[in-house]
């Protein structure tokens, strides 16, 4: 056996993680609020713990995969004394500030804390496409790393415990915006009977070709070089037309209105000739 790991939480993700750790040779103990979910894991060779305390006492590394920040604190705080001196890897999705709060709480109780963010769905766990981001205590990462590397590609983002989740949330923000853009396009095209599939193929081709252009924008944003490029004025007209066209089809233009507002702000403050990508400067809440 490679080592002892307890997995707290056997939802879709916790189950996939427990199975992978067990299959790769770790001695696993599992706990779940709804006890029945431990049965298939016990049948497959894990030890089922009746209480969280029992689960924590059984292993050196504790992996928590609960629902959210509140469920982590509700369940782990009563077990703080038992967690003392152990490595706690929290893979539950939380915001960066929540991760920092949990790290502070852990430090106060002598718990070595690593925060994680899972960039994968349960089916991907254990495969090369699964990326898991970690941040927090370096020693916790060093200790847990061999086990964490069995779950997918492990990437350590530094000692700031909130960093992994910040990156996760930034990437998810870009992802949701992309899909939302497709929903908007499909809603417009289906007003004339074009299928969602047909629009999907068009969006994949058009947006797919443009996606690498992000790197070009990145270089300009990095140098805050907004002197050339497509102007605010031009883009404001273009986006205005998109909003009008959506409404003409009886489709909401909510997806684009915030961008139109940012462009209006730039115009109102005398920056109508600047590169439109300067909208990024309008995003920071002052
Ligand atoms: P599920 O809904 O399948 O499972 C939720 C788990 O949390 C269950 O074990 C549930 O226990 C437990 N739980 C919920 N509330 C409480 C509570 N108050 N006290 C104790 N246990 C509680 O979710 P997933 O497994 O899919 O997700 C788990 C975490 O992983 C989430 O933070 C999610 O954001 C993250 N994640 C999930 C991904 C996915 O694709 N599924 C992708 C990336 C991250 P019970 O069985 O008793 O209800």
TrEMBL record:
<dbReference type="GO" id="GO:0140673">
    <property type="term" value="P:transcription elongation-coupled chromatin remodeling"/>
</dbReference>
<keyword id="KW-0560">Oxidoreductase</keyword>
<dbReference type="InterPro" id="IPR013328">
    <property type="entry name" value="6PGD_dom2"/>
</dbReference>
<dbReference type="GO" id="GO:0016491">
    <property type="term" value="F:oxidoreductase activity"/>
</dbReference>
<dbReference type="Pfam" id="PF21761">
    <property type="entry name" value="RedAm-like_C"/>
</dbReference>
<dbReference type="InterPro" id="IPR008927">
    <property type="entry name" value="6-PGluconate_DH-like_C_sf"/>
</dbReference>
<keyword id="KW-0732">Signal</keyword>
<dbReference type="InterPro" id="IPR036291">
    <property type="entry name" value="NAD(P)-bd_dom_sf"/>
</dbReference>
<dbReference type="Pfam" id="PF03446">
    <property type="entry name" value="NAD_binding_2"/>
</dbReference>
<dbReference type="InterPro" id="IPR051265">
    <property type="entry name" value="HIBADH-related_NP60_sf"/>
</dbReference>
<dbReference type="GO" id="GO:0000785">
    <property type="term" value="C:chromatin"/>
</dbReference>
<feature type="domain" description="NADPH-dependent reductive aminase-like C-terminal">
    <location>
        <begin position="160"/>
        <end position="283"/>
    </location>
</feature>
<dbReference type="GO" id="GO:0031491">
    <property type="term" value="F:nucleosome binding"/>
</dbReference>
<dbReference type="InterPro" id="IPR048666">
    <property type="entry name" value="RedAm-like_C"/>
</dbReference>
<dbReference type="GO" id="GO:0003677">
    <property type="term" value="F:DNA binding"/>
</dbReference>
<dbReference type="InterPro" id="IPR015815">
    <property type="entry name" value="HIBADH-related"/>
</dbReference>
<dbReference type="GO" id="GO:0050661">
    <property type="term" value="F:NADP binding"/>
</dbReference>
<comment type="similarity">
    <text>Belongs to the HIBADH-related family.</text>
</comment>
<dbReference type="InterPro" id="IPR006115">
    <property type="entry name" value="6PGDH_NADP-bd"/>
</dbReference>
<protein>
    <submittedName>
        <fullName>6-phosphogluconate dehydrogenase</fullName>
    </submittedName>
</protein>
<feature type="domain" description="6-phosphogluconate dehydrogenase NADP-binding">
    <location>
        <begin position="4"/>
        <end position="153"/>
    </location>
</feature>
<feature type="signal peptide">
    <location>
        <begin position="1"/>
        <end position="18"/>
    </location>
</feature>
């Amino acid at each position: 056996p490679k080592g002892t790991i307890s997995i707290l939480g056997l939802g879709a993700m916790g189950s996939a993680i427990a199975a992978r750790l067990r299959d790769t040779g770790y001695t696993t103990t599992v706990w779940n609020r709804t006890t029945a979910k431990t049965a298939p894991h016990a049948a497959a060779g894990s030890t089922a713990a009746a209480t969280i305390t029992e689960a924590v006492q059984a292993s050196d590394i504790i992996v928590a995969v609960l629902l959210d920040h509140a469920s982590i604190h509700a369940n782990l705080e009563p077990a703080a004394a038992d967690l003392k001196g152990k490595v706690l890897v929290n893979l539950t999705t939380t915001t960066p500030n929540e991760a920092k709060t949990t790290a502070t709480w852990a430090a106060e109780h002598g718990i070595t804390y690593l925060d994680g963010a899972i960039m994968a769905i349960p089916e991907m766990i254990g495969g090369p496409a699964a990326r898991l981001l970690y941040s927090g205590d370096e020693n916790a990462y060093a200790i847990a790393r061999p086990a964490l590397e069995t779950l997918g590609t492990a990437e350590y983002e530094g000692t700031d415990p909130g960093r992994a989740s910040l990156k996760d949330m930034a990437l998810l923000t870009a992802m949701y915006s992309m899909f939302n853009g497709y929903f908007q396009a499909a809603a417009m095209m289906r007003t004339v009977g074009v299928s969602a599939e047909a629009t999907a193929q068009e969006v994949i081709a058009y947006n797919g070709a443009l996606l690498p252009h992000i790197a070009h924008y990145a270089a300009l944003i990095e140098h805050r070089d907004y002197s050339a490029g497509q102007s605010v004025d031009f883009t404001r007209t273009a986006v205005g037309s998109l909003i009008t066209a959506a409404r003409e089809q009886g489709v909401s233009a909510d997806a684009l209105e915030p961008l139109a507002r940012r462009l209006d702000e730039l115009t109102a403050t005398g920056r109508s000739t600047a590169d439109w990508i300067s909208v990024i400067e309008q995003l920071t809440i002052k």
